[in-house]
Amino acid sequence: MTEATALTRAGRLAEATALIQRTLAGDHPVRVVQGEIVVDEERLRDDPPPVQDAPDGLDDLVGTPDQVRRSGPSTPDLPGETLHRVHQGATGARPYTLYVPTTGTGPRPLLVMLHGGTQTAADFAAATRMSEQAEEHGFLVAYPEQVTSANPMRYWNWFEPADQRRGVGEPAILAGIVDEIAALHEVDRDRVYVAGFSAGGAMAAVLGAAYPDVFAAVGVHSGLPQGCATDVGSAVSAMSSAPGARPLERPVPVIAFHGDADTTVAVGNAAHVVEQFTGCPVSGDTLVERDPGRPATRVVVRRDGAPVGELWTVHGSSHAWSGGAAGGSYTDPAGPDASAEMVRFFADHPRRS
Fold first, then answer.
1. Which of 111-120, 160-169, 226-235, 290-299 has the lowest average pLDDT?
2. Which DSSP string corresponds to 4-21?
3. Phi, psi for residue 27 in degrees, rounded to 5
4. d(CA 215, CA 208)
5. Catalytic site residues?
6. Measured between alpha carbons, how far is residue 106 from residues 109, 131, 185, 186, 188 in Å?
7. What is the DSSP letter of 162?
8. Which one, 37, 84, 331, 344, has least CB within 10 Å?
9. Where is region (Disordered) located (predicted)?
10. E strand segments, 40-138
11. CATH code of domain 2-347
């Protein structure tokens, strides 16, 4: 780790990443053996892989120690069914957790939730309390999990060219998880959504851009627009400078949350996400007061009079899921409830051909 830190400070980020990957490869249930992915499903279920500690000197990538909580709230007991599965597709395999609520009838909506770096699926479910929203509103919610063989810090590789396009890499794996769930459960394919936090938010943007025929709308919390980076170095630059990105060829409804005290990912990225996905400028605002709690500014973006995007700036919040569970991984309980607001937004935006 000392050598990796020295490489990072010298600006040799690719070498530092490779060294960390070799050092932290460790023992995990999804691995590559002679070019083939091998999944130990029984051990994955009984012994989930641990979260890796953040190496010294990489706080700008993974957050400060007080933000990364190794223990936190557990997901409350809910009446629905929690399933643990591993999806194996042509481009790779990933474990995921699926919550199936007792509410709702017929084909139900599906929400895919993508965790941030250093988090697990269980961390993210507990932090966002999205399974509680699923039980209340009657939709399925899936939590795919990144594996340390793909990224030692559990980042979704949103910045890699091979993981930014349709039909390849992690986007294809995650879209395959949607197809797998739809084959096993009654899913309303016009109401499939994806949301994520930090690296997961950036990957949610990748999925929305690559699969507009699959995902009806996207939620990006503390993330970045699709296509703003092509490697680790440009990812770090985008996180700090918010360079923006080109509008999508096919607009997709989007809701973005970001804290204006975020020192990990610049708050300007959120506006660029909304502009990229809606093709419309972000203008106007409404102050949402919370007493007690953090105020936020909400901008509703409209096209031909219809709302197609929302930008929420949470004042005083850092790199954390707004309104998340107290003590959770990367959460700010004082902020507006991002989970509830995303569910509301998604409910108003089924996929339209």
1. 290-299
2. HHHHHHTT-HHHHHHHHH
3. -110, 120
4. 6
5. 198
6. 10, 19, 10, 7, 8
7. G
8. 344
9. 41-81
10. 81-89, 92-100, 108-114
11. 3.40.50.1820
